[in-house]
Write a structure and sequence with these properties.
Oligomer: single chain
Distance between the termini: 45 Å
Shape: elongated
Low-confidence stretches: 1-10
Number of strands: 8
Helix content: 40-55%
Largest sheet: 3 strands, mixed
CATH architecture of the largest domain: 2-Layer Sandwich
Number of domains: 2
Strand order of the largest sheet: 1-3-2
CATH class of the largest domain: Alpha Beta
CATH topology of the largest domain: Zincin-like
Mean pLDDT: 87
Structural class: alpha/beta
Order of helices and strands: HEEEHHHHEEEHEEHH
Radius of gyration: 22 Å
Length: about 240
């Protein structure tokens, strides 16, 4: 339960435009507001956007939230308008919004939408120096008894030094940054990044209310089984 009973009953009968206008007046009482326009868009995720132009508040909201309860839209209004003025929204609104998106039914809807609308642009797993399929299968035998089903694998199209790898459950894909596909990068470093992402496949994200735990205790315990773990991490730091 989200604890919506504390809201005034009148708020439950507001249109989304009226709701956003009310929240705007609460946060920016001295700023004139001529109009509020809301468009529900077929985004591939739960993102929403806002801008203020000539006194007109324009909001683009993911269509996943069309028909969402008024308290959820109110929380989103506080988040977006606070973001517009580079402020942090009240924690209660951020928690309320995250709790709604973390509901099991919402997670299923969002994953389905990512699968249907999103595109995964990756390069071939056979890189210039490393073959991701060979890396995966070698680690699969060494650490998972060869029992892990291989997801789609690919190198990133752009070499990122910030995100060295990620697992996308919506597309069942492991992507490694192409910055690792170089002779100068030791195989141990590439193996560790692949192993880390394989653990995300093995241990899914744990959702607890508004919290999203990516590295669970089971994940961390399994990661310690990687041979020469400290050495591999040190190699990645030098990148």
């Amino acid at each position: 339960m989200l604890g919506f009973m504390g809201l005034e009953s009148a708020a439950l009968f507001e249109t989304p435009e009226q709701l956003f206008a009310r929240v705007f007046r609460e946060l920016k009482p001295r700023t004139a507001l001529a109009e509020v326009r809301i468009d529900y868009c077929r985004f591939a995720n739960a993102n929403s956007f806002i801008r203020l132009a000539s006194g007109r508040l324009e909001i683009r909201i993911t269509d996943v939230l069309e028909g969402a309860p008024a308290p959820v839209l109110e929380a989103l209004a506080h988040i977006l308008i606070s973001r517009l003025y580079r402020r942090a929204p009240a924690r209660s609104y951020a928690d309320r919004y995250r709790r709604y998106l973390n509901r099991r039914d919402m997670r299923r809807v969002l994953q389905l939408i990512r699968q249907q609308r999103g595109r995964k642009l990756i390069a071939h797993p056979q890189g210039r120096h490393y073959d991701l399929i060979e890396l995966f299968e070698d680690l699969n035998l060494r650490y998972f008894h060869g029992l892990m089903a291989r997801p789609d694998l690919g190198w990133s199209r752009r070499p990122s030094r910030i995100t060295l790898g990620h697992y996308d459950p919506s597309h069942n894909t492991i992507v490694l940054s192409s910055v690792l596909d170089r002779v100068a990068v030791p195989r141990l470093a590439a193996e560790y990044v692949m192993f880390h992402e394989m653990l995300h496949l093995r241990f899914p994200v744990d959702h607890r209310g508004a919290r999203r735990c990516v590295h669970t205790p089971d994940f961390k315990a399994a990661e310690k089984q990687f041979e020469r773990l400290a050495e591999a991490k040190e190699m990645l730091k030098r990148l």
